[in-house]
Amino acid sequence: MPSTELAGRVAGSWRQLPQPARRVRVGLSGGLDSTVLLHLLASLRQTLPLQLSAAHVQHGLVAGSAAWADDCRRLCDGLGVPLVVSAVQVDRHHPGGLEAAARDARREALAALGDEVLALAHHRDDQAETVLFRAIRGAGVRGAGGMRPVVAAGPGPLVWRPLLDVPRSALLAYARAHCLAWVDDPSNADSGFSRNFLRNEVLPLVESRFPGAAAGLARMGRLCGEAAGMLDELAALDLTALRLPGSQRLGREATLRLSSARLRNLLRFMLLEAGEAMPDEDRLREIERQLCSPGAAEGLCLPIGKSALCVYREAWWLAPARHDAALVSLAWSLEPSVRWAGGVVEWRETVGEGLAAAALAGGVCELRRRAGGERMRLRAGGPSRSLKNLLQEAGVPPWLRDNLPLLWVDGRLAWIAGVGVAAEFRCRPGESGVVLNWSVLAG
């Protein structure tokens, strides 16, 4: 592939990014792939309005790797590209192994730099290796989709892989044509690592029998990625259709009418959106079984990583898995917000709803947790009812009840999160009021 064609591909890929991207940082290991990508982007600064920079992450796992930062500095100085060098600690007890731990550490360090776009130099051979690795593990359509050329994930930078359709041989030819120097990581030759074994032993053997196999695997990954995208679209449609009116929670009765495969697709989508690692098939089927079990409606809070699948009565949803235990009591001077049991109690000014602002003015306000024996009257002239009955009637999930914030004003119970305002504190039409909310209940 001629250098001009390679540069044209990268420029075309940049123009197709979903948002204007001026500040681009290259993840620079110093190896062949990232060296070529940096050189290509540096050569395109005259035609593309790029503010180019680079970042090198030192993980200290390979003897002599500390010197690689010096090689990266020489390259960047020669190209006039600013460089940041970050040192990281790799979790040697990572459940995915040392390779996964190093990748996660690099990813976190690069994402923390606050750029618009992070450019990574993965190429077609890397894609083939990834697809094969995930297929062996039975990763399904989404996993077999391999790496995506563009990933917009959360608050971090947009991840861009402009070389994903380019074979490594084209990068090597480019580097030699431009007399580039690069670092050879000796750990890449160690086939004791699973990915190195596929790269060094398996794929060359397969290519010797089936020329073009790497291109075929990469193409399969792209097609699986398209299929996974359509599955995500289906899940998003299901999510909208199942959402209960005026709520972020989902209707359980309608959910149970979905096919098993469609429900598990929705669960995968929701867990990915929540940033959770994907459970294996057996675990996902167990989550499905518990969601669909008749007893779940009585109250289910099933931890899944940092999230939890919550079911109560005819609704289900994902929420943070753990909440801090509530304080017994907390004096509150009506600051705009105050932390409470893993969430936030906050208020907003209103007219004609919520608590009467006049009833709060000058009063001693205190948030307390449930102690037992509390009663409240919701309607003027209505009966005083126990907190237990009020919580059951309001549909507050059982696992949240002990930590629920209760607002007391001058020693009188004025508001219960998820239940409402005591009759004697209720705002009248046209009167200034305050509406309170505890964010945990919005899950």
UniProtKB/TrEMBL annotation:
Domain Lysidine-tRNA(Ile) synthetase C-terminal: 365-438
Protein name per UniProt: tRNA(Ile)-lysidine synthase
Pfam family, any one: ATP_bind_3
GO BP terms in the entry: tRNA modification
Enzymatic class: ligase
UniProt-annotated location(s): Cytoplasm
GO CC field: cytoplasm
Family: Belongs to the tRNA(Ile)-lysidine synthase family.
NCBIfam families: lysidine_TilS_C, lysidine_TilS_N
Keyword Plastid: no
Signal peptide: none
Domain of life: Bacteria
SUPFAM superfamilies: Adenine nucleotide alpha hydrolases-like (SSF52402), MesJ substrate recognition domain-like (SSF82829), PheT/TilS domain (SSF56037)
Residues engaged in binding ATP: 29-34
Catalytic activities: cytidine(34) in tRNA(Ile2) + L-lysine + ATP = lysidine(34) in tRNA(Ile2) + AMP + diphosphate + H(+)
Keywords, alphabetical: ATP-binding, Cytoplasm, Ligase, Nucleotide-binding, tRNA processing
Biological source species: Zoogloea ramigera
EC number: 6.3.4.19
